[in-house]
Amino acid sequence: MAVPTKNIPAPDLVPVRRALLSVFDKTGLVDFAKALAAAGVELVSTGGTAKTIAEAGLAVRDVSELTGFPEIMDGRVKTLHPSVHGALLGIRDDAEHAKAMRDHHIEPIDLVVSNLYPFEEVRRSGAGYASIVENIDIGGPAMIRASAKNHAYVAIVTDPADYAPVINALEMNLGSLSLDFRKKLAAKAFARTATYDAAISSWFAEELQIEHPTWRAFGGRLDQVMRYGENPHQNAGFYLSGDKRPGVATARQLQGKQLSYNNINDTDAAFELVGEFDPARSAAIAIIKHANPCGVAEGSSLKAAYAKALACDPVSAFGGIVAMNRILDAEAAEEIVKTFTEVIIAPDATDEAAAIVAAKKNLRLLVTGGLPDPRAAGTTVKSVAGGLLVQSRDNAVVDDLELKVVTKRAPTSAELADLKFAFRVAKHVKSNAIVYARDGATVGIGAGQMSRVDSSRIAARKALDAAEAAGLAEPLTKGSVVASDAFFPFADGLLSAIEAGATAVIQPGGSMRDDDVIAAADEHGIAMVFTGVRHFRH
Questions:
Q1: What residues act catalytically?
Q2: How far is it, in rounded angstroms, from Cα 523 to Cα 516?
Q3: Which helix (H) or strand (E) holds 434?
Q4: CA–CA distance, 353 with 330 (Å, rounded to integer)
Q5: CA-CA distances (angstroms) from residue 378 to 250, 277, 384?
Q6: C-alpha–C-alpha distance, residues 245 and 153, integer Å
Q7: Which tens digit of pLDDT belongs to each residue from 13-55?
Q8: Whose CA is closest to 285, among 251, 244, 219, 336?
Q9: How much is the pTM?
């Protein structure tokens, strides 16, 4: 049964006569407090916040004067008191509430300024369990939620970015704040406590290794509002979860226009793919279009790797995303800017390279400071009508898998190296995925088809087109290897790959018709290995 309401209309303008300030992040605090004091607002505060305000020469009452009770338990208990929460939750125009406030000497509070203990930052810092628990704020969220609930009379400020708008609103309304303004502050406050609690509940689930908690919450902070989403009629915003995994969300943009929704989606796909390649082993480049690779290659240098990656599908590379596993150098930058490119993302860039890219004023250059760890645990989320699909990140790496040779012929060492390369790439290609590779480079990619045989044929067709563009006598799929993200349900997909010129195959295995597929491979004298792990990517 719902709590009954008294239907007392909220006043539009509420004068701000008393403010309670209790913040961990003291950015802009003194200037804000000075502006409030200049507007005739009485300042009440707690602990370190009160000390900071007093040291600035401002008159401030300690909250213990309101409560008649000192802070105790190392500051764990200071604002959790009826004199505080009655001052926040009292309905001023309700006779019973007003009488209770008078009878118990509760002084109304019109403005609350509160931000929270840095739980998210402490959690990410690698601090110990006890330290993380101690940074779970209790009094702050309680005050924030109480003030936000009673926004009919109380304004709640949770973000230093709102200090200036509050002062401007007070000046415009002669010391009062409007109901519409208070509502907006309340909405932001509830979103902040929701995000905070989401971080706490997620941490507990990880600590206790609860894979699927009964209640699941996700939160983020708005980073940017975009011009539109996937299409111009869709609106979009980019929110940061706080995860410090190197990538598009944590990168510094050195130059170029604002990233679009599709740019961010594709850049994330590109950098996650290139993170599969150890920079200590070789340079690697991934060129992405619509979240699928159109060319991936390893090389002795970024320039060499880029040339090989571009050769796979130079048509699709136009307007694509280029990701690399090493610091962008001038030599590579000069080659990349010759083709229209939307985004370049790298662990870092030399000054010379950045200057070359800067000549293309709209080309975005992002630097991340590192590569994402392909083995790291994590969570991915996808919305569906009425729910969320949540799963662990696909952190299987081919180098860690036990490969099983299932054909009469085993792959040569060169074929095995290319097989592993191709399977790394296939992990990041939309299913059904087929990847042809040769000499550490993709030479044909088939993605997102409803049948695996179609992916095989499309990849081979693209290889033919690339060969014609390069003036080659035959496609580079001749003498290549091929990777499939999942098993071949029939031999037709394999036969299509053999027809394209593949000499070795890597696939998960596990089909009811594995024996038929193996027999077809043996009949044509090609090598095949099973990984036992599939990489569907929808």
A1: 149, 290
A2: 10
A3: strand 434-437
A4: 4
A5: 16, 19, 20
A6: 42
A7: 999 999 999 999 999 999 999 999 999 999 999 888 999 999 9
A8: 336
A9: 0.87
